[in-house]
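sorry for the late reply, my laptop died twice this morning and i had to redo everyting from scratch. anyway the thing you sent over, i finally got around to it. pasting the sequence first so we're on the same page, its 61 residues, then the predicted structure underneath. double check i copied it right bc i was rushing
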Amino acid sequence: MLADALDTVRFRHHTLFDLLVRVPVRQAAAHLAPRNDAELTLMGLMVAVLAFTLALWLLPV
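ok and here's the structure:
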Protein backbone atom coordinates (compact mmCIF):
# COMPACT_ATOMS: atom_id res chain seq x y z
CA MET A 1 0.00 0.00 0.00
CA LEU A 2 2.82 2.41 0.88
CA ALA A 3 4.68 1.39 -2.27
CA ASP A 4 1.60 2.17 -4.38
CA ALA A 5 1.27 5.58 -2.76
CA LEU A 6 4.95 6.32 -3.42
CA ASP A 7 4.58 5.22 -7.05
CA THR A 8 1.57 7.51 -7.46
CA VAL A 9 3.44 10.46 -5.96
CA ARG A 10 6.48 9.74 -8.12
CA PHE A 11 4.34 9.50 -11.27
CA ARG A 12 2.53 12.76 -10.49
CA HIS A 13 5.82 14.51 -9.75
CA HIS A 14 7.31 13.38 -13.07
CA THR A 15 4.15 14.38 -14.93
CA LEU A 16 4.17 17.83 -13.34
CA PHE A 17 7.89 18.15 -14.07
CA ASP A 18 7.26 17.27 -17.72
CA LEU A 19 4.52 19.85 -18.01
CA LEU A 20 6.34 22.68 -16.26
CA VAL A 21 9.93 22.19 -17.35
CA ARG A 22 10.54 19.96 -20.31
CA VAL A 23 7.92 21.28 -22.72
CA PRO A 24 8.70 25.01 -22.21
CA VAL A 25 12.46 24.30 -22.39
CA ARG A 26 12.05 22.50 -25.71
CA GLN A 27 9.90 25.31 -27.07
CA ALA A 28 12.40 27.94 -25.91
CA ALA A 29 15.31 26.00 -27.39
CA ALA A 30 13.52 25.70 -30.73
CA HIS A 31 12.68 29.40 -30.66
CA LEU A 32 16.25 30.46 -29.81
CA ALA A 33 18.01 28.14 -32.26
CA PRO A 34 19.76 30.00 -35.08
CA ARG A 35 18.00 29.73 -38.43
CA ASN A 36 21.04 30.35 -40.66
CA ASP A 37 24.79 30.96 -40.61
CA ALA A 38 24.44 34.71 -40.09
CA GLU A 39 22.38 34.22 -36.92
CA LEU A 40 24.83 31.59 -35.69
CA THR A 41 27.75 33.99 -36.23
CA LEU A 42 25.89 36.82 -34.50
CA MET A 43 25.07 34.59 -31.53
CA GLY A 44 28.73 33.55 -31.27
CA LEU A 45 29.86 37.18 -31.33
CA MET A 46 27.32 38.09 -28.66
CA VAL A 47 28.56 35.28 -26.41
CA ALA A 48 32.18 36.35 -26.95
CA VAL A 49 31.41 39.99 -26.12
CA LEU A 50 29.46 38.95 -23.03
CA ALA A 51 32.30 36.71 -21.84
CA PHE A 52 34.86 39.47 -22.43
CA THR A 53 32.72 42.03 -20.59
CA LEU A 54 32.19 39.64 -17.68
CA ALA A 55 35.93 38.92 -17.49
CA LEU A 56 36.71 42.65 -17.39
CA TRP A 57 34.07 43.21 -14.74
CA LEU A 58 35.44 40.42 -12.54
CA LEU A 59 39.09 41.48 -12.77
CA PRO A 60 40.40 43.24 -9.70
CA VAL A 61 41.10 46.92 -10.26
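Residues 2-58 form one domain.
thats about all i looked at so far, will dig more tmrw
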